[in-house]
Write a structure and sequence with these properties.
With 291 residues, the chain is an alpha/beta fold. 40% of the residues lie in helices and 18% in strands.
Length: 291
């Protein structure tokens, strides 16, 4: 069993980007600029945005954090996005999800200029991904593909099972794994809450992606010997033995599943850092596409 170390790989990606940015500065060129919009004060969102802003600083990007009150109207938020679209110095825009219930995620995502859609959620970005055309790939699936690529895992001909069908992870992951590429060229089954015989399907997986948001849902009896396990989930679970009062758990029961796997991502330090690395790559691409 080998750990797929997201911290190690993301660090290598960020270091390579840092060198690229240093070269841009040497040549008197523009450096990438990411704008992050945070609505309200959701604890997890605060953490995610802070780590994105920190990564920008480490690499040498400019970053702008736009903090908005949770009571902001949908129209006012759309107005803020329009201002960011019009700002020629800003290359990438991300609006941290989830948004307050009175604001439509769909309207907000659709309002972002597709050339600045570094989250890869805009319908144009999704369409380009489906067609295999160059564009922005959603950061978490992109990060997972980069992780598999780094460890030189040849996925051709594998049966990949994706548990979860969200537009952010599950669906794009199934498209990327089935694409004519390596990593890729898998036969893909996508499962969800209405899937019958879920355990039996998971047992067929050479590559299992768990992205359903239920802590330790995938147990050892759902995984075949030698499978590759990608755990996308991250949930705070009460743990009084910890100083913080909680522990972070993935969708996979790591203790029981890891001995059966050939490769597995830990939680934390697995997919999470790769999501940020992929976002940084998307932001660099957005900047370079303008030059």
């Amino acid at each position: 069993m080998q750990i797929l170390d997201g911290v190690l790989v993301s660090g290598a990606i960020k270091e390579a980007l840092k060198m690229e940015v240093a070269q841009l500065i040497t040549n008197g060129k523009k450096v990438p600029h990411l704008a992050a919009v945070l609505v309200g004060n959701n604890g997890a969102s605060e953490t995610y945005v802070a780590s994105k802003v920190k990564s920008c600083a480490e690499i040498g990007y400019k970053s702008t954090l736009v903090r908005l009150d949770a009571t902001i109207s949908e129209n006012k938020l759309l107005g803020v996005i329009e201002e960011l679209n019009a700002d020629m110095d800003i290359d990438g825009i991300l609006v941290q999800l989830p948004l307050p219930k009175h604001i439509s995620d769909e309207k907000v995502i659709n309002a972002i200029d597709p050339s600045k859609d570094v989250d890869g959620f805009h319908p144009i970005s999704v369409g380009r991904m489906v067609l295999g055309a160059p564009g922005f790939i959603p950061a978490t699936p992109h990060g997972i593909m980069l992780l598999l690529e780094h460890y030189k895992i040849d996925t051709r001909g594998m049966h990949a099972v994706v548990v979860g069908r969200s537009n952010i992870v599950g669906r794009p992951m199934s498209i990327l794994l089935s694409s004519n590429s390596n990593p890729g060229n898998c036969t893909v089954t996508i499962c969800h809450s209405h899937t019958k015989n879920l355990r039996e399907i998971c047992l067929q997986a050479d590559l299992l992606v768990a992205a359903l948001g239920k802590p330790e849902f995938v147990k050892a009896d759902m995984v075949k010997e030698g499978a590759i396990i990608i755990d996308v989930g991250i949930t705070r679970v009460v743990d009084t033995s910890k100083k913080s009062g909680f522990a972070l758990k993935g969708d996979v029961d790591f203790a029981s599943v890891s001995p059966k796997s050939s490769y597995i991502t830990p939680v934390p330090r697995g997919v999470g850092p790769m999501t940020i690395a992929a976002l940084m790559k998307n932001t660099f691409k957005a900047c370079m596409d303008k030059n």
